[in-house]
């Protein structure tokens, strides 16, 4: 097992444990620590930026490839981000170029792109006379060896309920990165949680070429009898893994700044504005390979 | 140049030397910083062992020995040859006790060349109102100008805008690597066991090295040389006890030596049974302090001091953690002759922490520690009545264990270990203090420092030669590939650094009441605290400079004006400083530092600057004593890859900071104390936008630390009920209320997506801002008595 240059696998979830722990310690020493909602007292400056979300998904059971363009809002606004419908979007693999057409709500789609393993896809967006470009490479994902569910008792961090489980074998000698998506009755489900950075994404540094057994793709999502439980294992690039790591770390921040939570910083996109680099774009354009399975909880 | 100066000092008339020790008449404890001067104006002060040496012309002299809170001794002497005279000073109970800030050498901060130095006596610290009734050294020094901390639960403090890891914290010469108990609410210093605390913020003498911003020199009590004594305190969350007494008493009742032994332990866990949820938790910390000294003969003395402290928390079947320092110092001092004083210390210091995962099936323990051995010989030469020269060597050997994992309770976890790091740090220094003219006093010297990162270690080799490459297009640091590693055998040097650190201070007397001072110092720091949090935590790891992390260094210039008002009833000082820091460390955006060996891929280095003006007004005499301090300052870093490479406020930046301390002694049994603190909120980074990604709301940020927390202010008060004057009882009650008007000061304000609807956890798309404050109003009571 090669653990030298990486975090230790055993320490998975440690950040989360420590945070919860410190909160308990404060309670114990009887200090009247208090959390108060100050949303209405805070005024924030904001900078409007273009946002990209989406990318190319191989074997997702859907022949449409799509991305979405939106604009940022001030952080404490409780409405959906406004979409951008007047951009020109193209994707190329170096030989073929596809035009993505705006359908609705900021979605740009194409049905003619057939994703291929190992290809690097480059997106080009022209909007407001500025050009944005970025790329990602599609890596092959291994299949699920087994796909099932188990009932689990309540723990400190999870409620009791049925949880999805799977077994899968990592390909030998290849650097792999995985991302897990869970769907409840076909609706993508995710919870902002400190554990996401350690459970929803994983690198094979610690288990290269090994079979992993009984993996829960999302410890925060439990099912009840009658639910249709679906999970996807995505093969992702190292860059996307790093992007997601920062994203899940920040969205899981519980606000206790003195235990392992870095003060926040913007998460840099893989797409850049080549006309005016300071006018950054946010989000990620990805190319992923999908292994998917579903099961009815009975 | 030094030889020229030496010949200047030693030429001239027939001189003889008076030397000896000054001690407290009642307890026999050596007194440091006592002024001894003759009618001819020649004068000196006792060193940290209570030793003085004074060179006088042959003949008749009147000697004055004076120290704050003690009766001045006036003694006529006729000297023909070198003489040893020991003085015993009697505490002056008639004069109301005085608050002592910035009284580092006797009474004369105007005459003294030292600047940017504050001294706090333990007796002052114990009079200040305290959170949960526990007097605290680290919280008390934050009331001094130029000192701050990032929040109340911070084990660290910031001096003149420096990082918390830039303070050298010494307990009887031994380095304390983490001074925190209970995640920083308390420090490891038991105020019962402490004699005094001296903080050097600038003009740092060449005998100190290894940190950029300050030296906090904490000295433990030596113990009563005359009789056995005990004192104890019972507080709400902890109790403490101290015993002291003489070793080997002679017929006159004076000990050849003395000892002091102190301990304290918290007992919050004693109450956890009250709540079922907390029933089986473990939660405590304790400290043990020891000091002993023994006079081998008139000239040779031995000192032994030790400290052992630990925090332990455990939530059964969940998580446990433990951390603590163990330090020990053995010192030998020898007054070789009237003009030469030699001291030598052997020091051991260790800090370790562990983190236990107690979830069944995967129990394991994570351990990390830092150990150093230290040998410090030092020679002081009282060359003439006008000059003192000090020189010495520091040898330090470090061993860093960044982390190892072992299985607990027979779980299947495989034991693993990060590589140890070893290093040697050596310093050679000389320092001379002399009166150039009646008005001009100069202290100057240099320190030559050397740091060697030593094998045995395998050093990672990166594809481009460095662990990180900055990509200016994407604005991110790319981690470079490890292409192999190189083994350096035991005893071989991996990387070596050498530096010359000049130090210089001068004092010019404008009159007997006013002086002007200036200083310059260069400091080097070779070990760094790896943290990506705003304040240090017990889980932070010290890491040495080496092939990829360079030493930090700083240049500081300070000027000041010092004044006595109304015969020392008040004193006033104002100081301005400018500091330039190089190779300061910060973490890259999105750094992940916990439990990793290749920390060089997470750390980036750049430059820093800090500047400010500090005002301090002391009231030294009368029923009401205290001080007012005000600091206006800036502290900024500039690092490639952070904030577009522009200067940004670092975590210690605070524009305004004001402290008002008042201690009132009344004619009744009651004494009162009050402390008011006001400061600009510390820098934070607020989001400049929201967007969605993978079903979650994500925050966008622009510039690091571009926003401010709300203004911080707080009033703490205390009242002490002393025993009746004519009774034999010694017990006293101390009532205190921290944060009297229940201000909810923000420790942090954080922004997140609301993640719960009707008790179900889910992403909601809605956002909120939440303020975390550590405490509101905290009343407490403590009972203290002697036995």
Describe this structure in words.
The complex is a heterodimer of chains A (298) and B (787). The radius of gyration of chain A is 21 Å and the shape is globular. Chain A contains three helices and 17 strands. In chain A, strand 2 and strand 3 form a beta hairpin. Helices cover 11% and strands 39% of the residues of chain A. Chain B has 787 residues and is mostly beta strands. Chain B has a 22-stranded antiparallel β-barrel. Chain B folds into two domains: 2-89, Immunoglobulins (Immunoglobulin-like); 219-455 and 490-786, Maltoporin, Chain A (Beta Barrel). At the A-B interface, helix 1, strand 1, helix 3 and strand 17 of A face strand 46, strand 47, strand 51 and strand 54 of B.
Notable features of this structure?
heterodimer, A: 298 residues, mainly beta, Immunoglobulin-like, 2 domains, 13-stranded mixed sheet, 17 strands, globular, disordered N terminus, B: 787 residues, Maltoporin, Chain A, 5-stranded mixed sheet, 3 helices, 55 strands, 57% strand, DUF4249 (chain A), DUF4249 domain-containing protein (chain A)
- The CATH architecture of the largest domain in chain B can be named as Beta Barrel
Query: Helix amount of chain A, in percent?
Result: 10-25%
Oligomer: heterodimer
Overall strand count of chain B = 55
Which runs of chain B of at least 5 residues are low in confidence (pLDDT < 50)?
1-12, 94-106
Cα Rg of chain A: 21 Å
Secondary-structure class of chain B = mainly beta
Radius of gyration of chain B, whole Å: 27 Å
Structural class of chain A: mainly beta
Give the termini separation of chain A.
38 Å
Q: What gross morphology of chain B would you assign?
A: globular
Greatest interface (CB-CB under 8 A), with counts per chain: A-B, 91 and 100 residues
Tally the structural domains of chain B: 2
In percent terms, what proportion of residues of chain B is strand? Answer: over 45%
Overall shape of chain A: it is: globular
Q: Estimate percent helicity of chain B.
A: under 10%
Q: Indicate the low-confidence ranges of chain A by residue numbers.
A: 1-10
By DSSP, the count of extended strands of chain A is 17
CATH homologous superfamily caption of the largest domain in chain B: TonB-dependent receptor, beta-barrel domain
Average pLDDT over all residues of chain B: 87
CATH topology of the largest domain in chain B: Maltoporin, Chain A
InterPro entries (chain A): DUF4249 (IPR025345)
Pfam families (chain A): DUF4249
Protein name (chain A): DUF4249 domain-containing protein
